[in-house]
Amino acid sequence: MISRQLYHFGRYLMMMGTALARPERTYMYYKETTRQMNDIGIGSLVIVILISLFIGAVTAVQFSYQLDGTLVPLYYIGYIVRDSTIIELAPTITCLVLAGKVGSNMSSEIGGMRQKEHIDAMEIMGVNTAGYLVLPKIIAALVVIPLLVAIAAFVSVIGGYLAMVLTGSLSHNDYIMGVRSFFKDGNVTMMFVKAIVFAFILTSVSCYQGYYVKGGSIELGKASTNAVVFSDILILLADYLIASILT
Amino acid sequence: MIRTIDVHKSFNDQQVLKGVTTEFFPGKTNLIIGRSGAGKTVLLKILVGLVTPTTGDIFYGDVNFSQLNKKEMRAIRMKVGMLFQGSALFDSMSVEENIRFPLDMFTSMKKKKKAMQVDSCLERVSLGQVHKKYPSEISGGMQKRVGIARAIVLNPEYLFCDEPNSGLDPKTAIVIDELIRDITIDKNITTVINTHDMNSVMEIGDNIVLIHEGKLAWRGDKSQVLESTNDTLQQFIFASPFLQRLRAAALERSQEG
Question: What is the mean pLDDT of residues B147-174?
Answer without folding.
Answer: 89
